[in-house]
Write a structure and sequence with these properties.
By secondary structure, the chain is α/β, with parallel strands linked by helices. Helices cover 26% and strands 18% of the residues. The protein starts with a strand and ends in a 19-residue tail after the last helix. Bound molecules: flavin-adenine dinucleotide.
Length: 302
């Protein structure tokens, strides 16, 4: 068996929005990055399927109250935090929520608008056309028509492909993480408190051979688990391999019982793919009707 081995400074597993933004951020900071994914091209996960859009910030000009745009942005960060805590039934990790609400909009500015040049829809006056999704108390969602994920991923992947410090390998399915505890050569390492990740075993799906990728830093960006359900709007590869690898490597997992479901999808008998009917439609006031044209949701959520 021809087992190949290589060493890289940074290994990123998964090329969705998480993997691509991590790759660009680290490569811009001067690190050599190897980005691998299971599919035949960069666009193979859930990210390109996203329709509704991405959270930004309420338009300060239309969001009165505080005096300056900065103060109004801060007001929206506080309002967004409240919306997220309500939607999360206060189970949320508050520090993470606060970080997301305060840093998220400027990350969207820097990475998606300025760096990747994503052409988010604008109003006639040049301001962003913000929409509102379920759970949000105000419009703050940036979108590109109803193919926001594809537009975002096209912008990001163009930057990835042009970056001199990012190498891409497709058809590489990570099998397991290499960790100091798992793979120690002497028993003493097993007693170390820090269990370090040192890369991953990867199946080269073109050659059928496993490869060893040693890395100083490994980023697990393998997305969700939606395809473990019979009916799913997720991409075919979303089967939770990252969660399983992390678990086997000794990572503590939490909140796995919380799963976002899309209640509205098109059922097609001949295909396993379920196309989503975007939740932005419900945010904009669309209602679910039975085959008789009758609203029925009040029976479940009065
Ligand atoms: C139909 C649909 C609509 C959505 N709409 C919205 C929306 O409007 N707004 C919103 O905010 N969110 C939306 N979401 C959710 C959003 O798409 C995801 O939260 C987001 O894309 C996750 O990004 P990611 O980078 O973590 O994962 P993904 O984009 O799923 O990327 C995962 C990557 O990991 C790779 N991978 C997986 N396992 C392995 C392995 N073992 N080895 C190597 N590579 C592996 C895959 O090949 C892929 O490249 C939607 C989701 C779906 C399915």
């Amino acid at each position: 068996m021809n087992v190949s081995r290589r060493h890289v400074p940074v290994l990123i597993i998964g090329s969705g929005i998480a993997g691509c933004t991590a790759a660009l951020t680290l490569a811009d900071a001067g690190h050599e990055v190897l980005l691998i994914n299971a599919g035949s091209q960069l666009l193979d996960g859930n990210s390109e399927l996203a329709q509704g859009g991405i959270i930004y910030r309420a338009d300060p000009a239309r969001n009165g109250g505080a005096e300056t745009a900065g103060a109004r942005n801060n007001d929206d960060a506080v309002a967004l935090e409240k919306d997220i805590l309500v939607a999360g039934h206060n189970y949320n990790y508050r520090k993470a929520v606060r970080f997301l609400c305060r840093q998220g909009p400027s990350c969207v500015d820097d990475m998606l608008i300025k760096r990747a040049g994503v052409p988010f829809d604008r109003n006639e006056d040049g301001s962003f056309n913000l929409t509102r999704e379920g759970g949000h108390s105000t419009p703050r969602i940036l979108h590109c028509r109803d193919y926001s994920g594809r537009a975002i991923m096209e912008g990001l992947t163009a930057q990835i492909m042009a970056h001199p410090r990012i190498t891409r390998l497709h058809h590489r399915a990570a099998i397991d993480l290499l960790t100091s505890r798992h793979h120690a050569k002497t028993s003493q390492y097993r007693y170390e408190i820090n269990n370090r990740c040192m890369g991953a075993y990867v199946l080269n799906e073109e050659s059928g051979e496993p490869e060893t990728i040693l890395a100083d830093w490994t980023v697990l960006a393998t997305g969700g688990v939606g395809q473990v359900f019979l009916h799913s709007t997720n991409a075919p590869g979303c089967v939770g391999t990252g969660v399983s690898m992390a678990f086997r490597a000794g990572v503590d997992l939490a909140n796995l019982e919380f799963m976002q479901f899309h209640p509205t999808a098109l059922y097609e008998e001949r295909s396993n793919r379920r196309s989503l009917i975007t939740e932005a439609m419900r945010g904009e006031g669309a209602r679910l009707l039975s085959h008789k044209g009758q609203p029925f949701m009040q029976g479940y959520d009065p």
